């Protein structure tokens, strides 16, 4: 049989050295090599090869056992660290719970104060509502009186508006009657005095009405703020109760979670005890394995000694074959015993592997429990954090509630003060309303008298306006005739007021006539004019539209001209802008 290869020899030597030591390994390697080298005992070589395989399996089992123990130790160390972290987290949880209990106690005390303030506020609110009920009745009466007053004021405003319009018409007509306004000025002075008195009375009425509206608006605004504050207080109270309910539920959940945590810790302790027990068993098994290994080494040592004796006997082989056979029998017996010991070792290794597997499985369960416990602890800490945040928010909301209640109490005090002032103002308003009715009665009588005088004045102004308008048109015929002759050399025919029917519509023209230009004898020129005492932009625009209609119905050249006593600069500019001509009563052409 060939010798062991170098790599096999080194590998076998390394394993034997780790298992039995260098000396024994060298002896075993030497013995194995010598036995293999000597091919005189094939059966012995086969047994030694089997022994080599057995030793390799022992070494492999030993290596696996050592790796398993290493993993077990590492897992145990990690589990110890996790348990330590869990214990620290539990301490932090208990500390937070203590702080939370203190915060809940403070919150309960603050809630009691809030309830007391709300009770006081409810009593004050009841008093305020009673006063407001009385005030609403008074305000309702005042509102009815005010409605009647407003109705009268509305009628008065309509009358005043009519007066204003009549006054505007009167002023417009009076501007055209500057030469004959002596008597009218005297009447107008009386009218202005009456209107001034009426305006002063109206201003006083409006001032009183404005004060009344401001007072009622302030009362409504104050009431709205009071209702808003009470609404906010009710909402804050509802939120407080909701948060307290959530806090109670959270505390109950925390207690339940704590119970589960304690149960998991208890299970973890039991699992740890079982793990320690299994580790103790494993240590005993490992000790037994070491003892068996020692016996194996002893057997190997005996084998080495037997091998030495075998070598000695092999030297004397020729002479002592019988002794060699006897020694071979003993060697076979030893190998048999070694095989039996190996079988027992393998059985114990198998048991050890099963134990280690069970321990690994238990360790996995322990790690899973620790992981679940860590997750539960994390959830507990998260819930405690949320509970702390909720308590902090509740405390903050409670502070805001107390502040709102304080503000509401102050606002209630101010409301009561304002209600008192409003009652006084309401009494004053009632007195003012009576005075206003008297003033309105007097004002109505005065208004009736003013209307009579204004109707009489309107008749007088209408007559004067018609007289002055006719005089102005007569003046326009003369002045325009001279101006057109002087400026353009036209031959102007008779000018007159006329009515023209265009498109079934009767058009009135103040100044209308024909003219001819000697420079253009075959050309017909139509004079279309408007005579006004005081020309305005509105009248110029109306006349421009009339001119446009005349251009559509008159054949020939249209000469549009405005005649007036006076016109403001902007009116003159507007006339030029529209392409019209302007002649003043004193003969100036623009």
Would you summarize the structure shown here?
With 590 residues, this protein is of the alpha/beta class. The protein has seven helices and six strands; from the N terminus they run H-H-H-H-H-E-E-E-E-H-E-H-E. The chain has a domain at 489-584: Trna Endonuclease, Chain: A, domain 1 (3-Layer(aba) Sandwich), CATH 3.40.1350.10.
Would you mind describing this structure in some detail?
The chain is of the alpha/beta class. It has a domain at 489-584: Trna Endonuclease, Chain: A, domain 1, CATH 3.40.1350. Helices cover 84% and strands 9% of the residues. It has helices at residues 6-20, 22-37, 42-175, 182-315, 321-488, 537-553, 569-577, and strands spanning 491-492, 496-502, 505-517, 520-535, 557-567, 581-584. Strands 1, 2, 3, 4, 5 and 6 form a six-stranded mixed beta sheet that branches. Helix 1 runs antiparallel to helix 2, helix 2 (22-37) packs across helix 4 and helix 4 (182-315) runs antiparallel to helix 5 (321-488). The longest helix has 168 residues, at 321-488. The chain is elongated and about 190 Å long. The N and C termini lie far apart (151 Å).
Distance between the termini: 151 Å
Mean pLDDT: 75
β-strand percent reads 5-15%
Structural class: alpha/beta
The CATH topology of the domain at 489-584 turns out to be Trna Endonuclease, Chain: A, domain 1
Number of strands: 6
What's the main sheet like? Answer: 6 strands, mixed
How do the helices and strands follow one another from N- to C-terminus? HHHHHEEEEHEHE
CATH architecture of the domain at 489-584: 3-Layer(aba) Sandwich
Number of helices: 7
> Radius of gyration, rounded?
64 Å
Shape: elongated
Broad CATH class of the domain at 489-584: Alpha Beta
């Amino acid at each position: 049989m060939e010798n062991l290869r170098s790599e096999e020899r080194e590998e076998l030597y390394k394993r034997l050295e780790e298992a039995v030591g260098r000396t024994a390994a060298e002896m075993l390697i030497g013995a194995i090599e010598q036995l293999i080298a000597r091919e005189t005992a094939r059966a012995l070589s086969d047994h030694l090869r089997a022994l080599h395989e057995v030793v390799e399996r022992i070494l492999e089992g030993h290596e696996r056992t050592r790796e398993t123990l290493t993993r077990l130790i590492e897992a145990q160390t990690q589990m110890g660290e996790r348990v330590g972290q869990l214990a620290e987290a539990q301490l932090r949880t208990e500390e937070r719970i203590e702080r939370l209990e203190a915060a809940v106690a403070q919150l309960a005390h603050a809630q009691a104060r809030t309830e007391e303030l709300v009770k006081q506020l409810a009593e004050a609110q009841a008093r305020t509502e009673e006063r407001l009920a009385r005030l609403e009745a008074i305000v309702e009466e005042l509102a009815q009186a005010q409605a009647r007053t407003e109705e009268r004021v509305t009628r008065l405003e309509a009358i005043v508006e009519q007066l204003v319009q009549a006054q505007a018409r009167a002023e417009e007509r009076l501007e055209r009657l500057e030469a004959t306004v002596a008597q009218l000025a005297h009447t107008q002075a009386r009218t202005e005095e009456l209107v001034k008195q009426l305006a002063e009375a109206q201003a006083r009425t409006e001032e009183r009405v404005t004060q009344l509206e401001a007072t009622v608006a302030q009362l409504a605004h104050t009431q709205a703020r009071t209702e808003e504050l009470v609404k906010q207080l009710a909402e804050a109270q509802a939120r407080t109760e909701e948060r307290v309910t959530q806090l109670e539920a959270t505390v109950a959940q925390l207690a339940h979670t704590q119970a589960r945590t304690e149960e998991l810790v208890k299970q973890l302790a039991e699992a740890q005890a079982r793990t320690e027990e299994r580790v103790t068993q494993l240590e005993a098994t490992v000790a037994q394995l070491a003892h068996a290994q020692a016996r194996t080494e002893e057997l190997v040592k005996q084998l080495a000694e037997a091998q030495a004796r075998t070598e000695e006997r092999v030297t004397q082989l020729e002479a002592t074959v019988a002794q060699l056979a006897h020694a071979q029998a003993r060697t076979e017996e030893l190998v048999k015993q070694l095989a039996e010991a190996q079988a027992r070792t393998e059985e114990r290794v198998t048991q050890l592997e099963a134990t280690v597997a069970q321990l690994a499985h238990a360790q996995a369960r322990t790690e899973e429990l620790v992981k679940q416990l860590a997750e539960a602890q994390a959830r507990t800490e998260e819930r405690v954090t949320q509970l702390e945040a909720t308590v902090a928010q509740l405390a903050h909301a409670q502070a805001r509630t107390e502040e709102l209640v304080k503000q509401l109490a102050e606002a209630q005090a101010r409301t009561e003060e304002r209600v008192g002032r409003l009652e006084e103002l309401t009494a004053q308003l009632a007195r003012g309303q009576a005075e206003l009715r008297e003033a309105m009665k007097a004002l109505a009588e005065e208004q009736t008298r003013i209307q009579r005088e204004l109707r009489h004045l309107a008749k007088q102004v209408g007559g004067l306006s018609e007289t002055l308008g006719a005089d102005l048109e007569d003046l326009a015929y003369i002045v325009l005739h001279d101006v057109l002759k002087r400026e353009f050399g036209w031959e102007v025919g008779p000018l007159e007021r006329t009515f023209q029917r265009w498109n079934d519509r009767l058009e009135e023209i103040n100044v209308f006539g024909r003219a001819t230009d000697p420079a253009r004898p075959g050309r017909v020129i139509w004079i279309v004019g408007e005579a006004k005492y005081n020309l305005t932009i509105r009248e110029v625009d109306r006349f421009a539209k009339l001119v446009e209609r005349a251009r559509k119905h008159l054949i020939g050249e249209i000469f549009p001209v405005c005649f007036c006593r006076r016109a403001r600069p902007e009116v003159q500019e507007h006339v030029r802008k529209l392409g019209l001509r302007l002649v003043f009563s004193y003969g100036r052409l623009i």
